[in-house]
Amino acid sequence: MNNNEKEINIEHEFDYSNIIPTIDNIGNLIKYCESIYNQFLKLIDEDEKRNEQLKYEYKNYQYGKCYGNRFEISIFTENYTRISCKDYDSYLQKVNEGYLKNVNSLSIYLDLDFLRGPFNDSKIYENLFEISFRPYKIKFFRKSNNNDEKINQIENVINSVLYQLPKENSIFCTK
Predict the structure, then answer these.
(1) Structure confidence at residue 145 (pLDDT)
(2) Distance CA 8, CA 145 (A)
(3) Long-range residue pairs from 3-7, CB within 8 A, at least 24 positions apart, any chain
(4) pTM of this prediction?
């Protein structure tokens, strides 16, 4: 982090256990997360190109490449088989193959880690988002070691999308 930035720990957890997760509304959430991930990768590529011609001592990153990045949809079927999807199209393929019937859980992972600062003194900005769907337990987690406005905005939009999904109170969850 820059000298004027303070490292903080953000660990937010939101409970959406009364929403009704359908293939379509989870698919829309996956599309959004995938678009964020692709925009993020584009920021990293642009930053890398901007610094490419500079000598190491002059390189300075806003969104430097970090190897902790991923976008993944993880599905655990009723017989505990784990299926991993890397994008919306592979999710849709698994839907069409019948893998999203009676699942034990589905999780969406969005890791947006990046480097910021001068090449020889850059710091890792860790940003993990996880949306976990289990019967009667639907949670959205964010874990970050920084307070980046663009990352805060992603959290707000994901919360907004989840909040707008159909809800139903039950004997297991009343909100």
Answers:
(1) 95
(2) 5
(3) 5/146, 7/123, 7/145, 7/146
(4) 0.90
Give the separation between CA 110 and CA 57, rounded to whole angstroms: 31
Summarised one tens digit per residue, pLDDT across range 125-135 is 999 999 999 98
The per-residue pLDDT for range 8-55, each reduced to its tens digit, is 899 999 999 999 999 999 999 999 999 999 999 999 999 999 998 889
Longest distance between any two alpha carbons in the chain, whole Å = 63
Nearest partner of 138 among 157, 163, 155, 156, judged by Cα: 163
